[in-house]
Amino acid sequence: MGLQSVEKTLGAELEELFAKGTAKGKEAIFVGVKKPDGKKGPRYILKKYGNKEFLRMNSNSYLGMSLEDSVINAEEEASREFGVGPGAVRFINGTFKAHRDLEKKLAEFHGREDAMIYSAAYATMIGVFAALTSKETTIVSDELNHNCIINAVRLSRPFEKKVYKHNNMAQLEQFIQESIGTQAKRLLVVTDGIFSMRGDYAPLDKIMALAEKYEKELPEGIVVMVDDSHGVGAFGETGRGTEEYTKAGKVDVLIGTLGKAFGVNGGYVVSSETVTRYLREKAITYIYSNPITVGEAAATLKVVEFLDSKQGKERLKHLRKLTKKFEDGLKSMDFEVIESEHPIVPLMVRDTQKTTDIVAFLKEHGVLATGLNFPVVPQGDQTIRFQVNGNHTEYDIEFALSVLGDYKKQGK
């Protein structure tokens, strides 16, 4: 009975979103997939589009591993042996060997003492942040950090929070200086490694240098936390992410995901043994939430092993080559892009309706891309985010560019 009243308010808000052009709308439903074949990478079949094939350029699966037979087989074999679900949270049910094997492998991959896996990277950030923030902690955060960081800051209830302009190291240093001598015992600097809407990266080398410079000025020092979910597996010569690319050394707490470049599902954190042991006792999203399945852990192990192989290094080179080819093609047509070696390639449209129009044109011609409008991105930064994957081919990139070229020919 009471729901009818609230539905009226919710319905009005929905109408406003659609009127402004900022509604996300209905989600595409995939009903089929064709694996890479010859000159073509994978193609996807959508509900209500018959047998029409779509090139997907809006996937976070940067290495293209989710369709690899070896990864699928690893997940299937583990699932047949241990079942498709974990049964319960780890402190109640215990854990499976595959979970600890994966944690040890991730710690080794990142050169840390230990790792913890969570149900998702979002859950990782919320749980880690809340556990490491006290009432005497000041948090300093980049203004373009991901939504998970924004909400983690809100939920953690620190002594104070400060937000510096995107990648502005002078302002970051100013905020660090302002925190010295206050009630704050601990300062937590948090940033994305790769900024997911833009594909640019945080200067972790400079951030670490500032932390080291002022470390002894606070009773409990400065902790640098980085969410490199879009960087790990896809950025840096060996896929170690933004740390590797910026030659920053090891940040204090590094959060990553298993659901982007690794192509599976889940999130994780790597740090010292003391920190991870503390988090197992204190991180609410770890304690009270199921882990990923045994099959997912086995699949991810296979991907990490691949990444450190000769084939993995070749896949990363291929990914960088295609990313540059796509960027160069967009620039040759006078599209505005934010250049980076990262496979996120943002086409800066800076207009909501035009963004919607280009995305619709791409879909009509068999290319899936995502338009990002306010409030997902700031006003004036309306963007089409393209994401190059390791199982794309040169033909795929040329195909996407040809569709954009056809749009340009319309004179819009």
Query: How would a crystallographer describe the biggest sheet?
Result: 7 strands, mixed
The top level CATH class name of the largest domain: Alpha Beta
**Helix count, DSSP H or I runs of 4 or more residues:** 15
Q: CATH superfamily of the largest domain, called what?
A: Type I PLP-dependent aspartate aminotransferase-like (Major domain)
CATH topology of the largest domain: Aspartate Aminotransferase, domain 2
Q: Number of DSSP strands?
A: 14
Domains (count): 2
- Tell me roughly what share of residues is in helical segments: 40-55%
Classification by helices and strands: alpha/beta
Identify the CATH architecture of the largest domain: 3-Layer(aba) Sandwich
Strand proportion: 15-25%
Quick check: average pLDDT?
94
Form type? globular
In the predicted model, the low-confidence regions spanning at least 5 consecutive residues are: none
Our measurement of the CA-to-CA distance between the termini, rounded to an integer number of angstroms, reads 50 Å
Reading the helices and strands in chain order gives HEEEHHHEHEHEHEHEHEEHHHHEHEEEH
Gyration radius, to the nearest Å?
Answer: 22 Å
The strand order across the widest sheet is 4-10-9-8-7-5-6
